[in-house]
Design goal:
The chain is α+β, with helices and mostly antiparallel strands and 482 residues long. The chain has eight helices and 28 strands. It has two domains: 13-173; 195-465, Deoxyribonuclease I, Chain A (4-Layer Sandwich), CATH 3.60.10. β21 (268-273) and β22 (281-285) form a beta hairpin.
């Protein structure tokens, strides 16, 4: 089945027209809650795409023994013999490691060796992955043929479930259709009046330690407001002064928490941590009255990473509670209809419910942070910007940089959420210089920055269309005369 523009983003709308190639028997697993369901397959000349169900909510990169076997030359005479196929590649999702059986050799695989993409990064009952069909090991192609065989096994203390069920062999003919050609997303605003917000984890003080690439990137993006994460040892003033050197066309204002800094072209009327023990920072940005009818309520977030689900939930709960209190009588009561944006490296690699804390205000720790509260002014959830790379082919915002992180596949960790009852979304994208053409790079004054030079996170950009200020009677009369 041709890929038809499938993107690994943790969403499945783009799979809607792809029929399952196999439907595994339900409730046939042995002493395990993982129960394989539908498998969908798509491909183009560059990548192989799989969508599969596992019957229970799990994190694909942790806490499971699901193994994918691929017979990439569709010959049982080569590779490792497993359930009637000759597996040339095997990948253990929960252990984040693989093996290639090539030309009689056994070679350990890392995710970058096969160009692995996975989504979502949070727990789910359904996942999508893709692999680079042009991958090579020791100059030997890993996908030498257009016909392959696929096998999934749950190997939790023995083989607990198999897809396909024996004795079925699942053979797939891959498409060599060219990938969908996207029109590159331009870096500029659709309208100069749109407000541009950028979220950027600069990795261990990178803005100060490695300023060169950040200067070029910020100049190309031309932001109005920047949410930096991982600035720990420099003050708000030092950060604002450095941004002013990089972008000298306006004064810059800043407020800081112990996890990051909000830097703005416009004055900051008020700021406060969403919880005094945490590093997530709220600010009220004083937007110019002649251009914007309202100000902006902004949160720069950087909850804890990795396996600290409890700590991450506490911080996300605090953010949701803070928004609830901003909308409640008393305290820091916002003017109703004040646009709200949450931006940052959310580290969403645990439970799926953690994203729902931010989007829908579903507080987990209600004894500490009070009741849940739908955060948008119209009593609905916030909207997710859901940006893609400027090439349109990828959605990840983080990729590995060191030996520990190397085992994790690129993922979407950085988000911008907003109150779509009062804001409209303009241009939005993730900037990944390694995917841009030389012509695009030259036009933007950029070069290719790898993770060692800049950051393992990519900048996320969103332009917002604000309510416009009401015209005075005098101005309206002048426009009528014109």
């Amino acid at each position: 089945m041709p890929a038809q523009g499938i993107i690994i983003d943790g969403r499945f709308e783009d799979w809607a027209d792809v029929a399952p190639i196999y439907r595994d028997t339900r409730d046939d697993q042995l002493e395990s809650d993982i129960d394989f369901g539908d498998l969908k397959v798509a491909s183009d000349s560059m990548r192989l795409y799989l969508s599969f169900e596992i019957g229970v909510e799990r994190n694909l990169q942790n806490d499971n023994e699901i193994v994918l076997y691929l017979d990439t030359d569709n010959s049982s005479q080569t590779g490792r013999t497993v359930a009637g196929i000759g597996a040339d590649i095997q990948w253990a999702f929960g252990r984040r490691v693989g093996t290639a059986h090539i030309s009689g050799d056994t070679v350990r695989l890392h995710q970058e060796n096969i160009g692995l993409r996975q989504g979502p990064t949070v727990t789910s009952t359904k996942f999508e992955i893709s692999l680079n069909r042009n991958s090579m090991i020791k100059w030997v192609p890993l996908f030498p043929k257009d016909s392959i065989a696929i096998l999934f096994r749950n190997e939790q203390d023995g083989v607990r479930d198999v897809l396909p069920d024996a004795p079925r062999k699942l053979e797939i003919v891959l498409s060599n259709q060219r990938p969908v050609q996207y029109t590159p997303i331009p870096l500029g605003r659709q309208d100069p009046r749109h407000l541009r917000v950028v979220s950027y984890n600069v990795l261990f003080e990178g803005l100060f330690e490695r300023p060169g690439p950040f200067m070029s990137i910020l100049q190309a993006l031309d932001p109005d407001i920047i949410c930096f994460q991982e600035i720990w040892n420099h003050s708000a003033k030092e950060t604002a002064d450095l941004v002013a050197l990089m972008l000298p066309d306006a004064p810059w204002y800043a407020e800081k928490s112990h996890e990051g800094v909000i830097v703005s072209r416009y004055p900051i009327l008020d700021s406060h941590p969403t919880d005094v023990e945490q590093g997530n920072l709220w600010a009220l940005i004083d937007l110019p009255d002649e251009q914007f009818a309202v100000d902006l309520s902004l949160i720069n977030a950087h909850p804890p990473c990795c396996e600290d689900n409890a700590g991450r939930e506490l911080e996300l709960d605090a953010i949701a509670a803070w928004i609830r209190e901003l909308q409640s009588p008393g305290g820091r009561e916002l003017i109703p209809g004040t646009p709200m944006v949450i931006a940052g490296d959310m580290n969403l690699v645990g439970y799926a419910r953690q994203l729902e804390i931010l989007l829908a205000g579903r507080i987990i720790n209600q004894e500490r942070y009070g009741p849940s509260h739908l955060p948008d002014w119209d009593g609905t959830a916030l909207a997710d910007v859901m940006p893609y790379h400027t090439t349109g082919r990828e959605a990840y915002t983080w990729r590995s940089i060191n030996s520990y992180d190397r085992s994790f596949s690129p993922g979407r960790l950085d988000y911008i959420l907003y109150s779509d009852s009062v804001l409209e979304l303009g241009n939005h994208f993730v900037l990944c210089t390694s995917e841009m053409s030389q012509e695009e790079l030259t036009a933007a004054g950029l070069v290719v920055y790898d993770t060692a030079v800049a950051s393992d996170h990519l900048p996320v950009v969103a332009d917002f269309i604000f309510p416009v200020p009401a015209m005075s009677d005098e101005t309206a009369e002048m426009e009528d005369q014109e």
